[in-house]
Amino acid sequence: MDAGENEIRMEKPATALRRGWTTGACATAATKAALTALITGEFPDPVDITLPKGEQPAFALARESLAGLNAMAGIIKDAGDDPDVTHGALVMARVSRLPQGAGIVFKAGAGVGTVTLAGLPVPVGEPAINPVPRQMMREVVRDLCDEHGIAPDFQIEISIENGAELALQTWNPRLGILGGLSVLGTTGIVHPFSCSAWIHSIHRGIDVARAEGMPHVLGATGSTSEKTAQEFYQLPDAACLDMGDFAGGLLKYLRVHPVERLTIAGGFAKLTKLAQGALDLHSGRSQVDMAWLAGQAEALGGNHLKDRILGANTALEVLELTRAQGLDLPSVIAEKARAVALETLRGAPVAVDVMVTDRSGKLIAHAR
Fold this sequence. Notes:
- The chain is 35% helix and 20% strand.
- It is α/β, with parallel strands linked by helices and 368 residues long.
- It has two domains: 20-190, CbiD-like (2-Layer Sandwich), CATH 3.30.2110; 214-367, no CATH class.
- The protein has a five-stranded mixed β-sheet. Strands 15-14-16-17-18 form a five-stranded mixed β-sheet, with helices on both faces.
- The longest helix has 18 residues, at 23-40.
């Protein structure tokens, strides 16, 4: 359920980046403000909370209401400079009194999803609120109740304005989180362009696939190659792991948590980097080695192309040069990428095949 703090990734800018706060931190602050008002009749504004690592940020309230046995507080999420679809979203907590002995109960309000598939950190049927945000909210409730000498028997209903629409831009539907966004965060802080968030989302996708007993999963570098491979094998959406550039994050997790079969699909350039041994395929962290490609072409009988390949600007240019000469370089790339994947799996019981597509999505090589 760690879907990258519900993010869409872009290229990292060169300037210094401002960090922000997770949905879980906002929900915790809203919960504290609402419960304080329910107990004392006054909303703290700003409201401060303590994050898991001891940091104590303060949040301004954007909305508040107090009526009878429940109170609501809302906070606008600030994700800093991270390209997060929830940046600027209104995160609300409605806290209601429950009968004595009921304890602390979480409820998904409008815009917060519900878990429908096993394999995620919370059970099926529960609101998509991750364990750390739950613990943060429980601690806020218990601390306030201890301070005022009352029992911690409250319902916490978390809502995110327009969350159902925003969730369509995230990986939640594939993970079986339906109806809205997830309430996420492990530290309370959003670190801009964090690779770990994306990799954690890949891991959760594998967990779901394993829990559902899926024998075959797909990791693709992009939507075009994913569509080709998914249609080729008629795979369900839940089997499609948003690998992106993080081949290593996918393969290393499968090494310990194997599935029966893995298909890796991608364009020629990305899979060339995997074939060269790179496990992070991002353009800023690995590059296509033209000398290496020239060597592969030479092994196919294309030694006369060496200088043109070394002078090529892109992998696509190399692909077109070799195809014009009848050299099947994509099949070499597919085989070598598969070999790197198997080496990274270190003997884990996972059958691997690799599909190389062109920019239109046409399958141009398949190693299996």
